[in-house]
Design goal:
Layout (H helix, E strand, L loop, with lengths): L6 E2 L8 E5 L2 H5 L7 E6 L15 H18 E11 L1 E4 L2 E4 H11 L3 E9 L14 E8 L43 E3 L19 H11 L5 E4 L6 H8 L3 E6 L2 H16 L51
Bound molecules: S-adenosylmethionine (SAM).
């Protein structure tokens, strides 16, 4: 796929990148049955962001169900759907969207493969409950015969020097030299103000989060579609790895942003946080801000459960 890539406004399977300005259902209706290998998105959470009207939960779920139904129609038999969601909040009570959306997917006959926890370190500070520091990606497949490539997304082993100590392979290295399965808890910085990918969009997901899904659930040349495209992250992740990408976005200013970022990704000039960069640790870099200006509070006065004494992971700067 070395030809010049242009960003089309209408879906045709011969295109490489498609950005539809308008409602996602209008885009989905133009996509042939079974054409898409991966549908990945972060839908509106119905929490009153600038791009959504806060709806009654039943109305919101009915709208999501209509989109999901069309997504399933366009999904290839070997394809996957990844719905990345957090919580809907109603007068201080949280409703995890993956819980309420699960029946929509299962009633359409989809099979859940993982409920991936995406953990990040930064966000709003709550005073009446613990601050939310994870969201989930619920991954469904259309059939039991689905594409899954583990090798391109393996991560370094903790103990690569470990050897079998008994049995026929005693003395040989026991771990896979390509790395280990990344598991279903992913620690990836979210896109906050000091993240290299930050735009004016209030809730972009990081490119590296989607790259892992694209690499493991699609092959070169496959279509990746995001019905709620925002700033174009899913298409960027697709294009960077030789896949095709399509998406719909209802707000013109985000369509413009998406087009500009996708064009930079095509030109190879878009700055993104690399997939293999460890999470920034301010203690390790010797940041003075990690030294407390207050005297240490005795644990007898304020009992605390320390997760880790050293090596606390903070937010990545770039
Ligand atoms: C949570 S954001 C997605 C952000 C995206 N993941 C990114 O990385 O930039 C949801 C997006 O869906 C858009 N949106 C809301 N309703 C839509 C609809 N019916 N069709 C298409 N886009 C819609 C919103 O304007 C918003 O930009």
């Amino acid at each position: 796929m070395s030809e010049q890539i242009t960003i089309a406004a209408r879906f045709l399977t011969s295109e490489r990148a498609v950005v539809h300005m308008g409602d996602c259902l209008d885009l989905l209706r133009t996509v042939p049955d079974g054409a898409i290998q991966l549908i990945v998105t972060s839908p509106p959470y119905n929490i009153g962001k600038e791009y959504e009207k806060k709806l009654k939960l039943e109305t919101y779920l009915a709208q999501q169900a209509a989109v999901i139904r069309e997504c399933v129609r366009t999904l290839s038999p070997r394809g996957s759907i990844c719905w990345q969601v957090g919580n809907h909040v109603d007068r201080g009570a949280i409703i995890p969207l993956d819980i309420v959306l699960y029946p929509v997917f299962s009633e359409l006959g989809l099979r859940m493969r993982n409920r991936i926890i995406w953990h990040f370190e930064h966000g709003l500070h709550c005073s009446n409950r613990f601050s939310g520091r994870y969201e989930t990606i619920i991954w469904f497949t259309k059939t039991d015969d689905y594409t899954f490539h583990l090798d391109p997304v393996r991560v370094p082993q903790k103990y690569p020097g470990k050897k079998y100590f008994k049995g026929p392979n005693a003395g040989e290295y026991s771990s896979n030299p390509l790395g280990k399965n990344p598991g279903d808890v992913w620690i990836i910085p979210n896109v906050k103000s000091n993240h290299v990918e930050k735009t004016e969009h209030p809730c972009q997901f990081p490119v590296e989060l989607i790259e892992r899904l694209v690499l493991s659930m699609t092959s070169e040349g496959d279509w990746v579609l995001d019905p709620f495209l925002g700033t174009g992250t899913s298409i960027i992740a697709a294009i960077r790895h030789g896949r095709r990408g399509a998406g719909a976005e209802i707000m013109p200013k985000y369509v413009e942003l998406a087009r500009s970022r996708i064009a930079q990704a095509i030109a190879g000039t878009l700055r993104t946080r690399p997939m293999d960069r460890p999470v920034y640790d301010p203690k390790q870099t010797g940041s003075k801000l990690t030294v407390s200006p207050w005297p240490t509070i005795k644990t007898t006065e304020q009992p605390v459960l320390l997760e880790k004494k050293e090596g606390y992971s903070g937010h990545e700067n770039s």
